[in-house]
Amino acid sequence: MDKIPKNHRIPRLCWVIFQVLQLSAIGLMIWALFTSSWVELNIPGFYGDLKWSGSLTSVRKGLRALEGSTYSELSSAYCSITQKSKDIPKKEPSWCEMFALLWVGEIVYYILEGVAIIAILIWIYTIGFRLKIHTSYWKTPGLCWAYLSCISHEIAFITWMILSNATFSGECDQESEGKSPPELCALKGPTIALILAVVLPIFSISYMLLTRFLPKIVEEKGIIKEDSEGKLNEADV
After folding, report:
1. Where does the sequence pass through the membrane (predicted)?
2. 62: β partners
3. In angstroms, rounded to a whole number, what is the distance separating the alpha carbons of residues 58 and 76?
4. What is the C-alpha to C-alpha distance for residues 195 and 105, in angstroms, rounded to an integer?
């Protein structure tokens, strides 16, 4: 295996830094998935506040009757009450839909975020493999994985926000009437997801620009030449 020329260290360093940023993005994705702080509902009442907060999958704190229950379980419980009785408190239909949508949002988010994480891992591999064998790593299929990771996360985040009826405005203290689910407060998990929704497109665009312009800069400056096998050699200048 040929030794990487000393004057090729700068373009090589660009890709190493890029891999570190990609791994950081995966770390944030996993942190968001497992944080216990995703949504909150806090409705003031005469006999005390009706308050609970939960993760992506379940209620973690607040009402004792809900604490520790998954959204799937709560959806079944509240929706069964709604179906069995016509004379029910006004919150029952709205809470039935609220927990049902949180459950669907959970499933959609897990699937699409899993796709995004796998895409980034493959994206990292395409860069790392090329770096290891010292070939023209800017001609990798990494762009398709970059776009897939970005699009998958964006769809996951937007879909979850719509289904959960969550907001970053902090207005989660209004009880809903009838069948409309109450508005929830988005907490730490959605905030991390929002940051990633901004960062991942920047990563993808940066990667596209690097793959487009870095080879030209390298070739114009005579830093690297490619032999017939695609291996990188020092330019004869």
Report:
1. 12-34, 107-131, 143-163, 191-210
2. 52
3. 13
4. 19
Long-range contact set of residues 160-163: C-beta below 8 Å, sequence gap at least 24: 160/105, 160/106, 160/108, 160/109, 160/190, 160/193, 161/186, 161/190, 163/101, 163/102, 163/104, 163/105, 163/108
CB atoms within 10 A of CB 99: 25
Between helix 142-164 and helix 91-133 the angle, nearest 10°, is: 170
Is residue 234 situated within a structural domain? no
Mean pLDDT over 188-209 rounds to: 93
Question: What domain range includes position 172?
Answer: 6-220
Structure tokens at 120: 């980034």
With contact defined as beta carbons under 8 Å apart, do 160 and 108 qualify? yes
Residue 23 in domain: yes
Number of domains in the chain: 1
Residue 136 lies in a domain: yes
d(CA 219, CA 17): 21
Residue 42 lies in a domain: yes
The tens digit of pLDDT for each residue in 121-145 reads 998 888 776 666 554 445 556 788 8
DSSP state of 137: G
Tens digit of pLDDT for each residue in 59-100?
A: 998 888 888 899 999 988 888 766 555 555 555 557 888 999
